[in-house]
Every structure is written in structure tokens, then in C-alpha cells.
Amino acid sequence: MKFFSLVAAVGLATMCANVAFAADHEVRMVNKDSEGRTMQFEPAFLKIAPGDTVTFVTTNPGHNSESVEGAIPEGAEGWKGRINEEISVTFDAEGLYAYKCLPHFGMGMVGLIQVGDDTSNLEAVQGARYPGKAAARMEELLGQVTAGAN
After folding, report:
1. Known binder of ligand: residue 104?
2. Does 29 count as an annotated binding residue?
3. Which of 28, 35, 53, 114 pairs as cysteine with 47 (C-beta 3.0–4.6 A)?
């Protein structure tokens, strides 16, 4: 009986240790970022580990965060936050995740999260539809991936 208790305790400790190593990141939804650009996520690019969580915080009203259709890893789950509401998303699948603020998408309010080192869906992210200023902003963010930025 003691052996089974020991095995259960080790298993529980292992599960808790894996959860303890997951990091929490914050992305602010702002009307103006620290570089003076309007309608932005800050930071707009993150490189995180699988299992990490990102919380999108409405610093200024009128924003949301949602995944860009066709611009997340195959089999990964997208998300859609409500306007003016904080949303937390846990990223388990490796790859690139493009996201937007729906009301300000055409104004360039997009962001990019790289989970792990897998960039095999880079072409899908590049090929997604980005209206107006969002196309140029996403190109900037994708440049950080190809440059190996963190």
C-alpha cells in the first residue's frame, strides 16, 4: 500500500511541476503603443512555450482579441474575445498564431504569437487576408519570426 501511495504522490508532483513551469504573459490592447502607433497590441509579437497562457487585457475600451481565420496551426483551437473583456488563452500546439482586434483590424491592430520553434504554418499565416494597414503590420511581425526575435 505504501508503494502505491508513493507512486501516486510522485505522479501528482510531476503533474504539478509541469503546470508550475507554464508561464503567463500579458498583451495589452491599447489606443496608442509605446512607439506612438495607434490601435495596437503591446507587445504585438510574443514567442512562448507550449502550455503558456496569454491574457489579453483591455487597457483602453473598444478592443477585443480573436484569432485570424486560417492563420493558426492546423488542429489548434481559435478564440474570440468580446469587446472590452479580458480573455486568457492557453497555447498547447506549436506554431504561429495570428490574431486581431475586429473593430480595428483594417487600422493594423494585429498581433502574432510563436509557440515553440515550429513555424511550419508560416505560409498559411502569410496567405491569410489582412485588410488595410493590417497587411503591412503583419509583415513586420512575421519579420521578427524569420529574424528569430523573442
Report:
1. yes
2. no
3. 114
Q: Is residue 103 part of a domain?
A: yes
Total number of residues shown for the chain: 150
109 among annotated binding-site residues? yes
- Which of 45, 50, 53, 47 lies closest to 90, judged by CA? 53
Q: Is residue 46 part of a domain?
A: yes
And the C-alpha cell for 142?
512575421
Q: Known binder of ligand: residue 1?
A: no
Cβ neighbors of 96 (< 8 A, separation 6 or more) are: 71, 72, 73, 112, 113, 114, 115, 119, 121, 122, 125, 145
Residue 66's closest CA among 53, 46, 80, 56?
A: 80
Per-residue pLDDT of the chain (150 residues; tens, 9 = 90+): 554 444 444 454 544 444 568 899 999 999 999 999 999 999 999 999 999 999 999 999 999 999 999 999 999 999 999 999 999 999 999 999 999 999 999 999 999 999 999 999 999 999 999 999 999 999 999 999 978 744
Question: What is residue 82's DSSP assignment?
Answer: P
- CATH number of the domain at 83, please: 2.60.40.420
**Domain ranges, residue 45:** 22-146
State the amino acid at position 74 in one-letter form: E
